[in-house]
Input
Amino acid sequence: MTRILVTGASGLLGSNLALAAAPRYDVVGLLHRQGLNEPGFETVQADLLDLDGIGALLDAVQPDWVVHCAALATLNEAERQPQLAHRLNAEVPGRLATEAARRGLRLAHISTDAVFDGSKGNYKETDGPNPLSVYARSKRMAELAVKAAHPGAILARTVFFGWSLNGQQSLAEFFYNNLAAGRPVNGHTDRRFCPLLVTDLAEILLEMLEKDLSGIYHVASADSMTKHEFGLALAARFGLDGGLIQSAESAAENPPARRAPDLSLNTARLSQALGRRMPTVAQGLDGLHAQHASGYRQRLRDLATQPQPLEG
Ligand SMILES: NC(=O)c1ccc[n+]([C@@H]2O[C@H](COP(=O)([O-])OP(=O)(O)OC[C@H]3O[C@@H](n4cnc5c(N)ncnc54)[C@H](OP(=O)(O)O)[C@@H]3O)[C@@H](O)[C@H]2O)c1
Output
């Protein structure tokens, strides 16, 4: 059975991916600070900032594939801690790629739509990146480092939503938590994206590894919408009051990190490689709703060693 090391296994993507893969693969989740309660897969604990420990970690775990989800993934936090962002988001992937290539391991590195400046949208893999923030620059540096060290690696530029361990990691949870509690929120009309449901992203990444793909791919939903439209679509899907979502411009809120207006990604290359279209955002929201109804959200929350009570 293929053995997969999933870094960031407590994070939004890593936890959903490790859970999705565990029935079919031999999964080892790499944890850092956040522990997991009987996740149903093996775990190891390590600080990836210990660059010299990465080779020994791979030798101890002996994976066939590595899916690298660990990162400083919050734009504003990266802006506040640029050195940490550079070390965790750029240096760690570079070293991981070097050590993985040396051992002949398949590697999927998770990158971001934010490598683009958002001035045009519908970005193809051949379009030139122009990162605007500390976070985006660190992720672009990672792409270059991973590609140089491990030319066979997958570089998946993506954006996603879903249920998380702490219930607050994704934009979907932001809208769901606030609307379910009857609190008004801003929905940005000046920011366009094409988010995938995180469990769909997990399955697509596993399929990309199975099919032995390599290089840069845009892994996103087939269509795009503004964050305001996303909030309204989520409200409609969950029967919540979309009237609580106020139209707002993110630029007017003066966030620490510069945001790009249109980060929609063209997914034709991946659709061709996999022989099918990517899911639409509406299909992703259907999946999110079904997960809520089936208790999957609660299952994720129960994984956290110190779970917070559910809202809504
Ligand atoms: N969320 C999005 O929509 C989005 C969009 C585009 C790209 N991405 C990329 O997708 C990937 C996953 O993002 P996410 O949202 O799932 O992130 P997340 O929920 O913030 O999770 C980050 C993970 O990294 C771990 N980590 C942090 N510092 C570490 C260290 N020094 N050593 C080992 N592990 C460490 C964290 O563990 P502890 O909490 O225990 O420290 C956590 O499990 C990232 O590469 C991110 O840049 C995310």
